[in-house]
Amino acid sequence: MRGLRRILARTALVVAGGLTCSPVLADRVELIVARDDRSVEIFMGMPVLTAVDTFGLDAGMLIGPDGRVPFESLQEGTWQIADALWERVEARIAGQTATFEGMSLMVHPLNQPLPFVTPLNGLTAISVCGVPAPEAPRGLRDLYLYAGFVAYPDDPGAPITLRLPNPKGLDLMVREHGFGGPLRDRHVHLSPGKPLELAVPRGPVAVPVAVMVVVMVAVSGLFLAFAAGRSRWSVRASA
């Protein structure tokens, strides 16, 4: 099953202790963007009704004949539902059209938000084996959706442009990770038609590090020169 090995291998690293749940806000979409040397992963979280009303997801892919969500059917694999959710998203990496594949999609009770801060949180949230079926079947308005997507561009560190369906404007919580750790968190409001720009903020980090190295070398040189001068002065004084 597409993406299942990747999901299971990463979610096996989850440590139950220390996890904190992020609050769910209605009508806000959460994004986790994760980059490594080979790939770009994007995890999305949103109320199921937002997925249906804004992203155009066919509700029939989730609900049964009774209008409820049969959780047991989701455990058979859901990457095709994730692909359907992504259909109206336009993605570009380094200015070129990028193809993202759906890894998995899962729904959880709206009033029981999951931790959704790190890429590992994202993989856990989309795991099809991580949600027990509720005692009473739930409708769409009672559920929150998590989905994961992956692409393999030539340069995973290149700027990413996403055009999300937002005919009425869209509020986002964007968490960017890459190359060893978190990069930045930000709240974004996209007006209708406005794209979301994602870029690795390398410049502001690299400059201070370089300056620090130069300063340390200069200070070390001054210290050695001062020590050498004191040594010569001591020799002359004793003579």
TrEMBL record:
Keywords, sorted A to Z: Membrane, Signal, Transmembrane, Transmembrane helix
Signal peptide: 1-26
Transmembrane segments: 205-228
Protein name (database record): Uncharacterized protein
Species annotation: Mameliella alba
